[in-house]
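Quick one, probably user error.
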């Protein structure tokens, strides 16, 4: 059996849904397919805006209506009005969403975030399930919150692998053996007491990998708007090249450094069970794409990765002592408590610097906690560039004209933070 994952871009309108149906019909067999789908288009961003407005007691009704219109306009193009079960389902979901938005309480921000933001995937999977059925495909809708079990680390639920695998193995092989195509949600999971969690933004690739792992799938395909895994994001860098095949190791590093085409957590479950991952274009499904798996280490074209909106923080010692392991341990402890992830770090005799994603709330807490012990300085609005498998020409071309604040080079990887 295999797993298909369709992201927001591949289900952004009615034509995109028709294309998904074409791919399902032509590249899979009923009884051997589980589909993971993300929220349509930019729905998750829209839900984040609605949630933060509702939480701040601001007017959000217009945004909610726009989101509802978007879903109903896609539905109206796909379904005739008299075939109304899908419309009822969408109405119910929006009524539920509205009710939850009206009952937010001031604390529990992250917990409530998950309950609200998860509606995107519930809506998208409802649309896709009904649409495939209308097209005479044997689709069944699966509530993945009953299968992907997580702890209650809101916004980044940690998967309970043993329990998740047990539940999936208990029910899904039988559902598939009855000839069904399972349609489920990406990005979301559930706790043992029935609360919804999310797995981290852009986490649907990871959801698909969880299902692939637990079902010991033969392969998994993520359908994207690009020709495969390229050596850079074509929206940012000109003249990209596609990797026809690439190892898990190389891919996991690219994802870690910020290649947003694959969620960084996706690779490990697949590599653990040696399940190949295909990145293919939903715009040109016949084309070869990229195969990620066990493969010989060839010399790869340099890969260019850009992380935007970075913050460079420097911790200086206040007396004339050096940065010690004791200091570092204090800093790391606070970073871990605040869930601040380090993208790059470097120390000198009297200071320690890190580059992280800019999050004003977390930064404020960090400074508040450590200001008595360290002199803290920071710069925001920075870019972090990484070149994997660099050569001197790629470094020269990329750094030209940039004001570099921090740089680092290992045998295979060159990184620098600079002003945007
Ligand atoms: N190395 C890369 N190769 C291909 N695409 C990349 C790469 N790095 C970033 N991207 C971007 O990833 C996008 C696809 O990922 P994403 O938007 O998350 O898809 P979806 O939300 O549909 O799953 C591409 O449109 C491209 O702009
Ligand atoms: N909808 C979620 C999860 C996701 O992975 O979406 P996509 O597959 O469109 O990147 C998000 O936008 O974060």
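Nope, works fine. Designed sequence:
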């Amino acid at each position: 059996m295999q797993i298909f994952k369709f992201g927001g871009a591949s289900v952004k309108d009615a034509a995109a849904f028709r294309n998904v149906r074409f791919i399902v019909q032509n590249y899979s067999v009923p009884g051997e397919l589980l589909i993971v789908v993300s929220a349509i288009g930019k729905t998750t961003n829209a839900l984040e805006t609605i949630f933060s407005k509702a939480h701040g007691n601001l007017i959000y009704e217009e945004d909610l209506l726009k989101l509802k219109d978007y879903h109903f306009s896609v539905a109206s193009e796909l379904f005739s009005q008299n075939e109304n079960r899908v419309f009822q389902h969408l109405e119910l979901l929006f009524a539920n969403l509205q009710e939850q938005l009206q009952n937010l309480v001031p604390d529990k921000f992250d917990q409530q975030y998950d309950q609200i933001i998860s509606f995107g995937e519930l809506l998208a999977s409802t649309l896709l399930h009904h649409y495939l059925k209308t097209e005479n495909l044997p689709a069944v809708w699966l509530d993945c919150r009953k299968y992907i079990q997580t702890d209650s680390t809101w916004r980044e639920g940690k998967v309970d692998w043993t329990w998740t695998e047990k539940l999936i193995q208990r029910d899904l092989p039988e559902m598939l053996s009855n000839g069904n195509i399972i349609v489920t949600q990406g990005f979301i999971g559930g706790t043992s007491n029935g609360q919804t969690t999310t797995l981290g933004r852009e986490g649907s690739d990871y959801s698909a990998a969880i299902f692939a792992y637990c079902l010991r799938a033969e392969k998994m395909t993520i359908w994207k708007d690009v020709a495969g895994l390229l050596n850079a994001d074509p929206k940012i860098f000109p003249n990209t090249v596609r990797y026809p095949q690439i190892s898990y190791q190389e891919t996991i590093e690219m994802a870690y450094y910020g290649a947003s085409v694959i969620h960084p957590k996706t690779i490990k479950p697949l590599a653990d069970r040696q399940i190949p991952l295909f990145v293919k274009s939903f715009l040109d499904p016949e084309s070869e794409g990229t195969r990620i798996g066990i493969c010989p280490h060839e010399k790869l074209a340099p890969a260019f990765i850009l992380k935007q909106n970075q913050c460079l923080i420097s911790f200086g010692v206040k007396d004339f002592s050096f940065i010690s392991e004791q200091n570092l341990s204090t800093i790391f402890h606070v970073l871990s408590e605040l869930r601040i992830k380090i993208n790059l770090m470097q120390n000198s005799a009297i200071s320690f610097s890190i580059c992280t994603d800019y999050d004003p709330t977390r930064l404020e807490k960090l400074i508040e906690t450590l200001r008595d012990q360290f002199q803290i300085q920071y710069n925001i609005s920075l870019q972090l560039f990484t070149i994997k498998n660099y050569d001197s020409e790629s470094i020269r071309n990329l750094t030209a004209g940039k004001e570099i604040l921090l740089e680092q080079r290992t045998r295979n990887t060159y990184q620098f933070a600079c002003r945007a």
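The chain has a mean pLDDT of 96.
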